[in-house]
User: What shape does this take?
Amino acid sequence: SGKTTLLRCLAGRMAPLAGAVHQGVRTVIGWYDQEVAALDSTRQLFEDVHDLVPRWEDQRVRDLLAGFLFRGDRIRTRICDLSGGEKAKLALLRLILSGANLLLLDEPTNHLDLHSRAALEEALLSFPETIVFISHDRYFIERVAERIFYLEDGQVRELIGSYPEYREVLRERRNREARALEEERERNRKA
Assistant: This one.
C-alpha cells in the first residue's frame, strides 16, 4: 500500500508521485530501513559506537552497548561478523546517536529479540523529537505511537482513538463484510 514509499519520500530518497515534500530548515533526518546488510565494516563494534560519541567515557559506551545486549567480548566483534539481528541493533543504535531530530523507521523491530525491542522502545520513548515509523508489531505500536496514520484505499487516514480501538473497528468491519457476503450468497442460492 506504499508505506515504505511514503517514508522514502519523506526522507528525500525518492520523489513523490504527486504533491511535494517540504523539509524544515533545521530538520536532520535519521533513516532506518529493513535492509541493514550495508553494515559490513571490519571495525570493532565498540570503536564504531565510541566514534559516534567521542566525549563519552569507555564505561558509558559499554553500558549503552550492554543495553542492546552487546556485552563482554562481544563488544570487540567486527561489524561484518555480526548476525543480521545484531546488525539491525547496531543500525538503530547508530541512528539514536546520530543527532537527527526526525527519525524515519521502517519496521524497526524486525530481526530484534525481546530484550533488544525493549531497549529500542525505551530509547525511542526518551527521544525528544519526532519519530515516524512503520510497523506491524502491535505491541510496539501500542507502546511507542502517540498518533497513528494508516493507509487505506490509497489514502492516508488518521486514527482517532487508540490502536486497540482501531483493531476492534477493523474486526467489526470484517464481521459486517463477512455477514453481508454470506447474506448475498444465501439470496443467490434462493434465486
The mean pLDDT is 86. The chain is about 45% helix and 15% strand. The first helix runs from residue 3 to 11.
